[in-house]
Amino acid sequence: MIFDVAALAVRDAGLRPQDIDGLLVGPQVGETPQHIPATVAEYLGLKPAMAGVVDLGGASAAGMVWRAAAAIASGMCHTVLCVLANTLETALRSPNRNPIREMDVPYGASGANVAYALIAQRHMHQFGTTSRQLAKAVVDQRHNAQLNPQAIFHGVPLTVEEVLASPLVADPLHLLEVVMPCGGGAAFIVTSTARAREMTHPPVFLAGAGEKVTHRAIAFAPDLTMGPLKSAIEQAYSQAGVGPKQIDVLSFYDCYSIMLAITAEDAGFCKKGHGGSWLAENDLTWEGNFPLNTHGGQLSCGQADLAGGMSHIVEAVRQLRQDVDGRQVKNAEWALITGNGATMSEATALILRCGDHS
Hints:
four-stranded mixed β-sheet; globular; alpha/beta
C-alpha cells in the first residue's frame, strides 16, 4: 500500500520517482522497528537526501507537512514524499488473537477508549455537553461520506437516533462515535513554491503551522477539556495571518466525537464549553455554513492507523484545488487541518491556502 499510494501521489504531482529527494514515514511500518525510512526508501527505489520518522500519533501526518517545508527551506532537499499506510490487523479477528490490546492497553497509558470517555464525561459535567449534540456532528460527517466512494460507510446513511442506540464502548461514548478501523494508505508531496508552480495542479500553499506536546498518558494531562491543540492552532493562525473567520474548510482530527467539540472551541469557532451546542446548531455538511471533514472523517471514511489523519490533509488539498466531485465546497480558499495524538497529548495544526499558476 505504501508503494501504491506513493506512486499515485508522485503521478498526481506530475513528477517522476527520481524527482523525490526527501522522505517522511510513520513509526514501525513493515518488518522492522528500526531503519524505517531506509526500509521504505529501498522498497520504493529512492535515495533521499533527507529521511525521517514522524511519531506524533494522530498528529503525525500534519507534523510531516511543516517538517518537509522546513527541510526544503533549509536546503536539505527540494521535494519530499510523505507516506503512511496500515493493514487491518486480521489477528484481532482470530480466536487466537493477543488479548493485550483489548484487555490491558485500554486501561493503561494508551487506553484511547477509556481516556476519551474520561474527557467526554468531564466536558459533559463541566459544560453540559450532551451525547445528542455530539451525535449530530457524527451524522453530518456520515452525510459527507455518502458522496465519497472511498469511505468505509459509503452507502450507509445514519441518524442521530442510530448513533445513540449503538452500544456504549466506554460511557458516554457510543460505538458510532468511535473511529472506524480499516486498512489503507495515503501520501502527498511537499515541494518548493517555485517547483509547485511548474506542476500539474494549481499549488496549495502551507501558510502556517503549529505544534505542541504536553504529556503522554491521560493521568498527566494538565486539563481534560483543553489540551495542546489550542496553542498549536493559535501558532498556525499567527503564521498565516488569518483567524477563524477566514477558514472555509475544516479538517478536524476526529478519533472520537468529543474531539470535534473541543477542537471547535480551541480553534476559536465558539467559546470554551460551547463546542457541543456549536456542533448541534451549525450545518457541518460539505454544503453547510461550516464544512467539516467533507470526506467523512475518520468516523465515517475510516482510520487506517496514522494514515487516517493523513486523509484530512489529502481532502483539504483537493478541496482547495477545486477538484472534489460531488462534495466541492464553493470558493474554498483557506483550510484548517488538525492532528491529535493519543489522549490529547500531541497536537499539530496547519493552515493551507489555495493558489494558482500566476
